[in-house]
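testing teh design pipeline on a random one, pls ignore if ur not involved
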């Protein structure tokens, strides 16, 4: 898995039935999202660069950007995404964000107004065992992109970070503990009855290399704003599910794992006593908000 040549797309050819692969390649009906006329007016004619655009969340963000009237340049190395996820109307570039020469060429050839950075190798637990790969992909690659954004005076850099920046909650499975209290490693204890849940006032305290890389880049964005004035928006999504979700990864995203097991006629794997409580976010409650990021001045 540490190899940069590892591809879930190609691994799926070996591990999963043809019928399941065929099902995943079919176009899925996706819900329409209503954007305001002012949002459409602001977005119209802008050029957006979306990284990780063949992946789960990235493909939905790219679709909403197209719907808003933006021209979308989609980048993905297809290590975890699929061409079939790409929405119609995007200009696709197959490549790695760590490739500074490729990025230079894209920015030379296009006037980029917005960057939506969703490309990542998202593996909290595994990141302990692929440290170099994690930091090169999730931090160094992000910095290459930010360098271009600063030099080319991009209007807004939208970064999809992760809830992993807060560290673990009380137990090792990162689920709510038996007494129904919730605490991040860097924040005060909260009961689940508290409506606020995690907020921006909770102190980030990442505990794995993946969360550390995400939070380090958040800090770098702040430093870049202070010195160069670049505008940015950070999102920290958690447990997103929906169409285009990768079902081939046995280590991440329990909804995809459950779907995979159902298709294979296997029992769904439940750890613990089954009484754990877990929050999930549907993709259409997440991706449109990310796409709106540069269009909301207060963000």
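output:
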């Amino acid at each position: 898995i540490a190899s940069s040549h590892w591809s879930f797309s190609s691994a799926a050819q070996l591990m999963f039935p043809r019928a399941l692969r065929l099902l995943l390649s079919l176009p899925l009906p996706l819900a329409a999202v209503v954007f305001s006329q002012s949002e459409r007016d602001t977005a119209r004619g802008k050029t957006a660069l979306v990284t990780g655009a063949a992946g789960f969340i990235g493909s939905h963000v790219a679709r909403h950007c197209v719907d808003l009237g933006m021209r979308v340049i989609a980048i993905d190395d297809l290590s975890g995404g699929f061409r079939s996820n790409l929405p119609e109307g995007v200009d696709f570039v197959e490549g790695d964000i760590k490739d500074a020469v490729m990025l230079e060429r894209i920015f030379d050839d296009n006037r980029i107004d917005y960057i939506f950075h969703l490309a990542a190798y998202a593996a909290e637990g595994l990141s302990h065992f692929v440290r170099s790969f994690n930091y090169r992909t999730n931090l160094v690659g992000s910095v290459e992109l930010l360098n271009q954004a600063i030099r080319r005076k991009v209007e807004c850099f939208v970064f999809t970070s992760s809830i992993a920046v807060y560290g673990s909650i009380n137990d090792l499975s990162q689920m709510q503990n038996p007494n129904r209290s919730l605490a991040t490693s860097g924040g005060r204890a909260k009961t689940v009855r508290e409506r606020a849940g995690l907020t921006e006032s909770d102190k980030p305290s990442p505990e794995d290399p993946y969360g550390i890389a995400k939070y380090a880049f958040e800090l770098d964005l702040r430093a870049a704003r202070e010195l160069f004035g670049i505008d940015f928006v950070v999102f920290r999504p958690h447990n997103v599910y929906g169409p285009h979700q990768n079902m081939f990864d046995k280590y991440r995203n329990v909804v995809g794992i459950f779907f995979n097991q159902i298709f294979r006629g296997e029992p769904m794997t439940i750890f613990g006593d089954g009484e754990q409580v877990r929050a999930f976010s549907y993709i259409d409650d997440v991706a449109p908000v990310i796409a709106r990021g540069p269009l909301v001045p207060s963000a």
